[in-house]
Structure formats: C-alpha cells, structure tokens
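[audit] Reproducing an earlier prediction to check determinism. Same input, same settings, fresh worker. If the tokens differ from the archived copy the diff job will pick it up downstream; this log only records the rerun itself.
[audit] input (75 residues):
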Amino acid sequence: MPPDDAASSRAGTAGSPGRAGRPFIGVYFECCRVYARIYRQPNEKEYRGRCPSCLRAVRVRVGPEGTDARLFRAS
C-alpha cells in the first residue's frame, strides 16, 4: 500500500524539511522542563525559537565548523 501523501508531507526528521519545508532541531528547555522543535527560515543561518512555557528566547547559529547534533539543552 503506498504511503499517504498527506501523512508523508507532515513527517519530517531532525534537520530535514518538515511540514512547512523548514529544517528543525529539538531543544529541551531546562527552565520549564519542556521540549520543543526550533525551526530555521530557509534563508537564515540560525535557528530561533522560544520556550513554549515561559517564552525564554534561544538562538542556535549554523556554521561550517558546527556539530551534527540535532538535540540540544537550553539552560
């Protein structure tokens, strides 16, 4: 049975395009003990997001000497 196009277009793996075609990383916010995906605009060199509970801002820059890690902790 072929995959459901709607379901496969919603699915995204870390670092690959997701629902909106934007790459994402996972961030665990230690401030409120919650996890969230942080998305990157296609034309930007950083991921920007906020804690979903207290709205604390986080920014993760992308660079050639960076890491392959896709999950991070914000403290």
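[audit] rerun output stored. Observation attached for the diff report: DSSP finds one helix and five strands in the chain.
[audit] end
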